[in-house]
Amino acid sequence: MDAPPNWLTPEQQAAWDSFIRMQEKLIGRLSRRVQSDSRMSPADYIVLAKLTEAGGRMRFMDLTKLVEWEKSRMSHQVGRMAKRGLVTKEDCPDDGRGAFIVATPAGRKAIEDAAPLHVEHVRRLFIDALTQDELDALSHIANRVLTHMEKQSD
Question: Under CATH, which architecture does the 33-151 domain have?
């Protein structure tokens, strides 16, 4: 016989619900702002941001793991971005099956133009709502959950 579900307490459920509502509303608003400010999709933005933070060039699988996407999703995203001239795909000389994703000059310009507007919205919607102590506590909590998740199997 299976054990009964270990339901959340009302306090745990309230914390979880608040976190989910905040996260969905924040990501939704930021995504809409990125789209309207820069004409980039949120997926374009995250790919270009991660690429340029890493110097403008990353192995395909490293980028896929970094943004926690499935390989097929990244492949489709890179294909769309390549058609618009934001990235290129280069063969990896060390690995015949591997590839590098490279931000083009147009991709670099797009993220350079979008990032200042994005950070303004992050500051207005998120950072400005919290004290430094609250930000420190949130950072600590987030890192603790991330460390815990790394120890878990999917």
Answer: Orthogonal Bundle (1.10)
